Amino acid sequence: MIKLWTIALVVTFVSPSFGNHHQLNPVHPSSEPSKAFRETRSIFSSEYYCWTQWFDRDDPSGTGDWETLSDLLKQYPNEICPNPVDVEATTLSGTPAKQTGEVFYKYDKTSGFVCRNEDQKQGMCSDYRVRFSCPSAYCSEKVCWTEWFDRDNPSGTGDWELLSNLTTENPGKICETPQYIQAKAKSLLASFIGDNIYIYNPTQGFVCRNEDQTFKKCWDYEVRFGCC
């Protein structure tokens, strides 16, 4: 599914140290990648994403429950990536945060999660825990992958490769609770392309929205899931 765009795209990737960003030569989406690019891509072809463990560093006894990424990185320096692609919060009993009816001050992959007591009608937040979707350096190395799936294209609002839709359309081909996810556009891994990704985690799947992109168009993606 080749995009016949007239613009060039600078393809970027992050080194395994997560500290240095590198740029390759601009790649036109309708052209074949150069030999140098194909060789570089093959080196990093193992990149995929998984959920970290759950973290609960605070409780709401003070001003609220502050599970910020900056604080968690200081407390767990080797267990969370500095630039997660997604975040999830639940109460300690497992209720998803968005189902509690409480108001959240922060809830995003950059900030982490904050529930302030002053924002709640009842005057007190629940006690929450968080986890982040991180690259392969934070995952187990043994992964059993499904086949690649491509159920949508970005001609509408974007490319929606949700796990719920994929399991319905492909019964018996995806495990009930995947632990890992990988996405690619044509032969390029999603992390190389530079699109702003809306959802990228094993329990929800993958979503790229056109409205979030500089040029208002996502690439066409396919996904696979790791089940062990």
Mind explaining what this structure looks like?
It is a single chain. The protein is an alpha+beta fold and 228 residues long. Strand 1 (12-14) and strand 2 form a beta hairpin. The protein has helices at residues 35-43, 69-75, 163-169, 190-193, and strands at 12-14, 21-23, 49-51, 64-68, 86-91, 106-108, 112-116, 128-134, 158-162, 180-185, 188-189, 199-201, 205-209, 221-226. It contains four helices and 14 strands. Strands 3, 5, 8, 10, 11 and 14 form a six-stranded antiparallel beta sheet that branches. Strands 4-7-6 form a three-stranded antiparallel beta sheet. Residues 1-46 have low confidence and may be disordered.
Please render the helix and strand layout as text.
Blueprint: E1 12-14, E2 21-23, H1 35-43, E3 49-51, E4 64-68, H2 69-75, E5 86-91, E6 106-108, E7 112-116, E8 128-134, E9 158-162, H3 163-169, E10 180-185, E11 188-189, H4 190-193, E12 199-201, E13 205-209, E14 221-226
Antiparallel strand pairs: 1-2, 3-8, 3-10, 4-7, 5-8, 6-7, 9-13, 10-11, 10-14, 12-13
Can you describe this structure in just a few lines?
The chain has 228 residues and is an alpha+beta fold. The chain contains 4 helices and 14 strands. Strands 3, 5, 8, 10, 11 and 14 form a 6-stranded antiparallel β-sheet that branches. Strands 4-7-6 form a 3-stranded antiparallel β-sheet. A 3-stranded antiparallel β-sheet has the order 9-13-12.
